[in-house]
User: What shape does this take?
Amino acid sequence: MTRACILGCAGQALTVEEIALYRDAQPWGFILFKRNIDTPDQTRALIEQMRETVGRADAPVLIDQEGGRVRRLRPPHWPDYPPAQAFSQATNDPMTARELARLGGRLIAHDLKALGINVDCAPVLDVPQPGAHDIIGDRAFGQDVVSIAQLGRAQAEGLMAGGVLPVIKHIPGHGRAMADSHHDLPVVTAKLQQLEEVDFATFRANSDMPAAMTAHIVYAAIDKAKPATQSRKVMRVIRKDIGFGGLIMTDDLSMKALGGDFESRARDSIAAGCDVVLHCNGVMDEMKGVIAGAGELKGEGKRRAAAALGRIVRDPEPLDVDWARARFAEYFDGVVARAGPAVGEA
Assistant: This one.
């Protein structure tokens, strides 16, 4: 039985206790953070170890490799990539910006596939608003719906061309949040029409993508009581209004925006309509609660999970890596990628 959860681990190799837990629980997938990564050989060995515990060579292994503040793979072993905002600033030509966003996604996929990572939690499709918390900031591809939708799609297409599954985030939109959901529960009070025209629009334009990550945000115009991750009302909007038919995974359940114990966090998210839940920090007792609350991956969730994995191409689009990096450097050589405090570095 496969469980409807994605789990992290504590260090750079699995402990005996983690191996036993994963073998028994059979999580759908795993996620890596900076704490889990040292060298390419060590990272590949950890990924192989993870997949061995569940007996699935294609088990999803996720990472957040956006570029800028959110990147788990870093020099000296891996190249830096600029934040999403840099693509719209690099050129006045929208077509060139789209070419560069796709090329960036393709290069990131090249880095990830060499390690065995097959899912990237990117692109960010949030539309930042004036005065909002800077948790999104330069992680957004621009300030307007059209450029964000187009450049986000380009990055996602580059990832898919390289054999890596993109996860669009944070559906249905994090750009109005006045707080960082890693630490507090944001409440968005915008009217539904505003949300429809701006926040939801980038996700609607990319509703054919294979997977999406939720926002731990209360949208008062839809549900005054529950954050999107745990709101049936918001999930109905995502499925019906935005029209997203792919796999929906939660943002990290260990973020402080959510309350309650970890079993109830997972159970409430699945009950609301999420297909799988994500837990990142590798804390053993928390993972046990998440496993209990997530339950079996079955029904429509199982179907959507299989459909998402089915979109991972086995033979990536050919890439002249030296040419691609040289082309990229024409616009981004010397870019200072770390423009602010790192996000979710654990």
In short: The chain has one domain: 3-331. Residues 162 and 194 are 36 Å apart (CA to CA).
